[in-house]
């Protein structure tokens, strides 16, 4: 949990980072995400060795952490895609503005075709960003739904575990009562036999 919160904190620095440091922040976040994934693999192995009554709860916890980290990984990739498209647009805009034109130069004309192509590229980039944002939104919603489902499943498992614990208590009480009844029956039979023996001896 602590490592996940640290990555979330670093994610908040992405939007405020300048061009020179944003790559360093991205690399730091990716390294931390990779480290968490590595730790989760070890946790999965350890959770499989837990006692049966704790194994399912431990597995659910690992799965929840895995979904949280996958969500962070998706958010990082979406940010990198948006940054790449933004930088590409800025480069194309600077190239267009850097073009110089001189008067009375028959060989130097406004490149209408290139301008149109640039506008088409901008529109295509905007459409790509919209698709990326929509895809990211769908992924986030899917992760939220899966998390809600996991929480519901976890609650049901705990309810079943509690019910099984109650059932085990009732079974132990029944077994104890059956043992006591058996002991009382044997004791009653012994007392009855003793009384019958004494009566026979007295009458004879």
Automatic annotation (TrEMBL):
Q: Which domain of life is it from?
A: Eukaryota
Q: Does the keyword Membrane apply?
A: yes
Describe its membrane topology: Single-pass type IV membrane protein
Cellular compartment(s): Endoplasmic reticulum membrane; Golgi apparatus, cis-Golgi network membrane
- Where are the bilayer-spanning segments? 183-203
- A GO molecular-function term, please? SNAP receptor activity
* Classification via SUPFAM superfamilies: SNARE fusion complex
Does the record carry NAD as a key word? no
What is one term from the GO cellular component aspect held by the record?
Answer: SNARE complex
Mind listing the UniProt keywords for this protein, alphabetically?
Acetylation, Coiled coil, Endoplasmic reticulum, Golgi apparatus, Membrane, Protein transport, Transmembrane, Transmembrane helix, Transport
Q: What's this protein's function?
A: Involved in transport of proteins from the cis/medial-Golgi to the trans-Golgi network.
Q: Which family does it belong to?
A: Belongs to the GOSR2 family.
Protein name, please? Golgi SNAP receptor complex member 2
Task: Write the lineage as a comma-separated list.
Answer: Eukaryota, Metazoa, Chordata, Craniata, Vertebrata
């Amino acid at each position: 949990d602590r490592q996940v919160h640290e990555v979330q904190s670093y994610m908040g620095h992405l939007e405020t980072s300048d061009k020179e440091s944003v790559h360093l922040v991205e690399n730091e976040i990716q390294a931390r995400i990779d480290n968490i994934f590595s730790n989760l693999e070890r946790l999965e192995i350890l959770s499989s060795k837990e006692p049966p009554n704790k194994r399912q709860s431990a597995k659910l916890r690992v799965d929840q952490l895995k979904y949280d980290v996958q969500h962070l990984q998706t958010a990082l990739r979406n940010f990198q895609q948006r940054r790449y498209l933004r930088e590409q647009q800025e480069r194309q805009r600077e190239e267009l503005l850097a073009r110089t034109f001189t008067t009375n130069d028959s060989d130097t004309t406004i490149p209408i075709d290139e301008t149109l192509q640039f506008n088409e590229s901008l529109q295509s980039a905007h459409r790509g960003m919209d698709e990326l944002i929509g895809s990211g939104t769908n992924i986030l919603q899917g992760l939220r739904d899966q998390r809600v489902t996991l929480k519901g499943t976890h609650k049901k498992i705990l309810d079943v575990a509690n019910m099984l614990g109650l059932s085990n208590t009732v079974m132990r009480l029944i077994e104890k009562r059956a043992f006591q009844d058996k002991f009382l029956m044997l004791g009653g039979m012994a007392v009855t036999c003793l009384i019958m023996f004494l009566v026979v001896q007295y009458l004879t």
